[in-house]
Amino acid sequence: MAVFERLTEATRDRWDEFVLAHPRGTWWHTSHWLDYQAAYTGGENASAFLMRGDEIVAISPMIVAGGRAEMGGMPLPLALWADGTATPPDRLIGGLRSGRFMGALGAEGDERSAMWRTRVLDLDVSAEKLWRDVRKSYHALVHHGERCYRIEVGATEQLGIDFERVHRDAGGHRAGRTYELNRAWLGRFGFVACAYARDAAQEPVGAILVFVYGKNWAYYASGPSLLPNVQHALQWAVITTLLARGDVRQYELGWQGEATTEKGRNIEFFKRGWGGRDV
Asked: Residue 278: phi, psi to the nearest 5?
């Protein structure tokens, strides 16, 4: 008989090992990202294993906030099964809802699955090939940003602090714990690209946070700016940094076709401008 067991501090290593080994596992399945989502939403991490004895049958990432099972307004990641498959989480939500912990929360599942299209750059090509695929109007904007700003890429504590500063000044409204987690991941799971004004103050005016996780994947996480057209030079700096590493094969820029606001549609348009493909 298979039973649900909640993800706990004692089992998080086993959870992350399962995600890393799974062919469909992503950063968004990891316990680290689930910690972030719980802090971001103010909800509860109700993620669970489906176990048969000591054997993992499946895992289902899940945050419960406001009486719903979701991920900060995004669909839930796919449930991962031990046979290497991945399915929409609906298949497990019913069982979790009737379980002892989800039943107590009275949560409803998000009917959408995490099977959205996402823009991905393949990095097993030259920088010249990637540059040719960049939207032509971006070329001048990249060069403009490189002239106007000092761009620094790395995983230092100061870069983490400067990312938070830009994000907050740009109107970001997140719990302080989310920034603490971002800084803790630097070096181990990612890095920051930050643009600084070329003046006496050298103030940060834009930044990008990137996650690098297992399986040769990198993920564009966030890109706040205080001035227009800063992000183009930053994004190109990220791409060339990933190329220079040599251990990253794909760079995920984020979903396509899901935006419901003008701002969201503009972000999707920006991401398409870097070439790549939707998967």
From this structure: -95, 135
